[in-house]
Amino acid sequence: MKRLLQVYIVCMTLTGCAFNSIFINYPSQIAPYKSQLATSTSNASLTKLADNISGNDGLLYAQEAGRIAQIEGDFANSKAYYQQAIAAYKDFDDRAIVSVSDIGATSSSFLLNDNAIPYRGPGYERIMLHQYQALNYLLMGDVQGALVEVRRSNQLQSSEQAHYEKSQDSIKEMANGTINSEINKLNKASGTVTSSFLNAYSYYTTGLLHELLGEPNDAYIDYRKAAQITPDNHFLQQDLVRLAKQLSMPQYDEFKKRWGDAPLPKKGQGQVVFMVERGFAPEKQSFTVPFTIDGNFQTAALATYYPRTTPLNTTPITGLNNVLKAQSIANIDALAYNALKEALPGALFRQAARVVTKSELNKSVKGDNKHDNDVGSVAMQIFNVVTEQPDRRSWLTLPQQAQIAREFIKPGQYNISIAGSSATKIEVKPNRATLIWVIETGNRTRFYSIII
Amino acid sequence: MKHIKVIFVLAAVLGLSACQSKVQYGDATEVETVNENFGSTDLQAISAKMVDSMLTFPPIVVMTQKERPIMFVDKIKNKTSEHIDTESITDTISTKLLRSGKFRFIDMTKVDAVRKQLDYQNNAGMVDPSTAIRFGRQIGAQYMLYGNLSSIVKEAGSDKDVYYKMTMRLMDLETGLIEWSDEKEIRKAKSKSFLGL
């Protein structure tokens, strides 16, 4: 009985932290912000979200708050939030190999659920964080700062690449029947190509910033990697051919044969570069299996994704001389499925440990008194089922898909719009590039542009 | 039993009070190794090396024997993967060079402020025209000091290696010749502790 009381005390103190994913599933915490971004014309208040940055999952809330501020065009605040997230990742990096706080978190996850472990995003989230931070610096006019963030994401990209070169096979090592079918389902949705491991959008963005800020040789390297991941994007192919031509690279003939020659800008022409982000990243769903041990009712809960049924099409951009069709460069869905697939072995291990801990707790409440026994064991079973929540945390305000489009056009003013959005005026100057960042969130589309 | 408890509580209180945070002054030139990022020690090492190298370079010694050449500092380009205040590095270097008494400087970061002031003196109608400083009387710089700061960062397992290289050059603006150049390399290695919080 005393054990039980202790568990309840732990439980009560934990509910004390208002915004906590241990009991309130994470997607439902972010849902109101997403709907606000999708519809309202007023800006979302971030103070409540930002209060959580000091908490256990501070990293995740900082990413989320930074992204919401960024979507709304508040780049200064977004930069500050992202900086907090970057610092949190750095803390993880600097942590000792055997860390007391990690052990503490893992052991409380044995008692409650995986949400007790501080959130640490998968590799692609961390890369996107730096990519978005680079855009913050760029849109606020700090070119050198933007390039620093670009180099940081380049560093992470190469370590991510090295990681997958070693461990592509490591995810196949699971033998549990139910979970296997879940993995197969995820496999089908994410495809087997590199695009589910590495993010071509990040490579393209870093390449683009390198190119626009006067480092075409670095851009060429990043574009080539992006093209290895997403080989069928027309704009990316053209960029590669054009850069190979401009830099007289040995691959120029090969690229030209494969994709056709690329037009160079005519004298006095300007350039429009579109980065189109559409929708929101997928939410993790819960997947619960009930069973009994020694006649005590228990559940196991894991997170999964339900693949979307309607894929996104190309986005027609109107208002230029011709209709420009933005093509997909990366699907965040595929990356998210893959990240979850990789996290499953660890989650399964902790799940097994949790089942053992909880059934031990069930046994421990069995005292001598018959009445005590019943109340205790019923309470224990309720506690077990209530605390058994899957880890549904992930960066939810990321886009579902990123698309790109690019064209050399005559300088002047244009009224551009994408399907269903109101028109926005942009300016194109001779020999300069106008970078237009289009973020579509449900019923609302925002345009941010800068002339570089 | 009770005594033991009291002793334990006292010990805990004493132990905790030792953990209180405190502030103290330190030596500004002390070696700083809080983390592997670019820090004050790197800044000091770079500026000391650059100034020494420049002031002892024989052609520069000859050049500064009869006159105090005028130079300006262009920005140092930050090519690392950290947000570093490179202006602070150039500030230190230019201050040291100026203090050596061998060079004179033009501060390009204050051109706008100077223009505003001269504009006020000449055009606002508030300043006695005989005391107003006229436009077009400043002296042009003969040399430009500029540089690059780049880094290579490698990380594997619990080891991290950071290498910085600072290159500086002095260009004669009339001839376009590089009169002096030097570089400073810094390497820092960091390995994670095995046990910790």
Automatic annotation (TrEMBL), chain A:
The keyword Hydrolase does not apply. TPR repeats lie at residues 200-233. PROSITE patterns: PROKAR_LIPOPROTEIN, TPR. InterPro entries: TPR-like_helical_dom_sf, TPR_rpt. The keyword Transferase does not apply. Keywords: TPR repeat. This is Tetratricopeptide repeat protein. It comes from Shewanella intestini.
